[in-house]
């Protein structure tokens, strides 16, 4: 492999190693192969063509469907010190002229182009100048994919026009039909297929019943008040109501949907990207064209209509690899509505089947990630440990009696009623509908009144999922018994049901223990520095450094350029541009923390300090001020503890310090500030001054280590 690859990765992107598959793909690019890359959102597709672009001669052409995304990527590359530009229809002639000139000077390594503007490329670049062609969001070429774009269909000509230039097509859409269609249409039938795992381990998965959703959402936000998140809703109305309620509760949230003006949408999107707006309540349209890497949570207020959509939406969280939360609310009302949409759609059969898989995921009683990944044809051996089922496995109870009651109620209702009425009958509800139909007289009326309404509904859903009951969607959703039901009613077959009571208790527990974000942490401090720098530079905050990099800065606390450069995500350019600001911020943070713990004032200290700064030794200061040298040393120690720059290490040897460190573990102190016990411990071989100095140095070290 090209030996410059790793140093280039560090120099321009700040990373020390590759993510899975990146290296293989880059090697294939250097071997001039055509490549199809399937990687989930956040998997790290961009580097697969951006890195070769830096090392190949000439220009890498990047076809990208969205102007906003293009601009974002080019800004990101420039922030890393990489020469990149884009061409699209929104530009003026003069701007394109300028880009053309730079291309001829060889001052551009990556040129982003919208498919509609491809014809311009021919006029400004000779075929020999193009070393690599990258096609981002390649699924847009296929009508099988979910964002088909007509302009993409002309991309097939690229291979004919530039037969010797390797093509790399990239997408996060996994299904096989789309994949093959992409290669076919791009005329790269022999492209090497690189299919990455779709497992996004840093995303936690959770599904909850959709009761009291707003309160649940507010409780959740309370645990992550400074983090960015998206809440997806099915209707425009819901996004607005929800944004209002969240705002009312004291957080900032905005709605985003196709009914708003273009300006309003752009504004909301930009504020979100720039970290000045934390929460967006959106219809699914939101998030398509944005690359924001620090979305920390995604909530689905409603059940999505299929797993592809759901996975893509939760995929917008945690692109930087930091643990992020996803939460899906599951309600039966949603299922009914989606069912109707699906039936009214063009290809009802496919849509219904997809919805069914989505429902199975939401109602799963075993590891959710297994269910999810199996949908994408990926099988994992072990339970994931990062979904609600793994964290709080449902306990099962013998549900035979409950099942018998439910099934016989359905039988007595002659299989004519929907879930709602069946539950009402079982619970002995006294409403008009029940009385109108005379259901208070049937034998099973009220036989399950000890079970709360919602729980009973959940048990019914479990029985549906286990195949004992079926919903006749075409017949007003009436519940029917399946042949399996007979086994329970007449043959004594046992049924296991997940214990709902326990699940409820566990949930309350988990909410209680959810930890709140620390508002005064170094991370928050660095985040503010980042926001200021981003606003000055006019780029999104995450393009300065990702949250992952800030977290590492918080943990490592670099104190020099060299240490700073070792942090993942810090490349040379960013080091030059932002290093000093962050190093200063870290140092100030440490000192402020330290100063809080000590405090001195007064003229006598000031005088000692001035003399010290003028270069006098402690003995000389003592003489000049007519003080004992013990007093001068105690001044210096105090000043040092107060955060002034005093080099106490000059007055004690390393060995003495080590001895003292050891002594601290052994000497028992009644008075925590006492010095004499140490003096005795060392059998009067180390002076009082030195002990005082040594203890001050050790104390500062431990405070700074803790801070
Ligand atoms: P995709 O286009 O597949 O959604 P990106 O290319 O935007 O993903 O990468 C997602 C995030 O992962 C970005 O913040 C990117 O900088 C980061 N990333 C990519 N490759 C690496 C790597 N080798 N090491 C660390 N972080 C990486
Ligand atoms: Zn799991």
General description of the model:
- The chain is α/β, with parallel strands linked by helices.
- The protein contains 33 helices and 17 strands.
- The strands form four sheets. It has a seven-stranded parallel beta sheet with strand order 3-4-2-5-6-1-7, with helices on both faces. It has a six-stranded parallel beta sheet with strand order 8-13-12-9-11-10.
- Helix 17 (400-412) crosses helix 18.
- The longest helix is centred in the C-terminal third of the chain and has 26 residues, at 572-597.
- The protein is globular, with a radius of gyration of 33 Å.
- The model is unreliable at 508-516 (pLDDT under 50).
- Residues 15, 18-19, 22, 39, 41-47, 291, 293, 319-320, 546 line the site of adenosine-5'-diphosphate (ADP).
Q: Secondary structure elements and their pairing?
A:
Blueprint: H1 5-13, H2 22-30, E1 35-38, H3 47-55, E2 59-63, H4 67-79, E3 84-87, H5 93-104, E4 110-113, H6 118-124, E5 130-135, H7 157-161, E6 167-171, H8 176-185, E7 192-195, E8 203-209, H9 213-223, E9 228-232, H10 236-248, E10 253-256, H11 262-273, E11 279-282, E12 295-300, H12 307-314, E13 324-330, H13 332-344, H14 348-362, H15 368-375, H16 388-391, E14 396-398, H17 400-412, H18 419-427, H19 432-437, H20 453-465, E15 469-472, E16 478-481, H21 483-490, E17 496-498, H22 500-513, H23 522-537, H24 541-544, H25 547-556, H26 561-565, H27 572-597, H28 603-613, H29 618-625, H30 629-641, H31 654-666, H32 676-681, H33 688-706
Parallel strand pairs: 1-6, 1-7, 2-4, 2-5, 3-4, 5-6, 8-13, 9-11, 9-12, 10-11, 12-13
Antiparallel strand pairs: 14-17, 15-16
Helix pairs in contact: 2-3, 13-14, 14-15, 17-18, 18-20, 23-25, 23-27, 28-30, 29-30, 30-33, 31-33
Bound molecules: adenosine-5'-diphosphate (ADP) and zinc ion.
Zinc ion (ZN) binds at residues 367-369, 383-384, 387, 389-390.
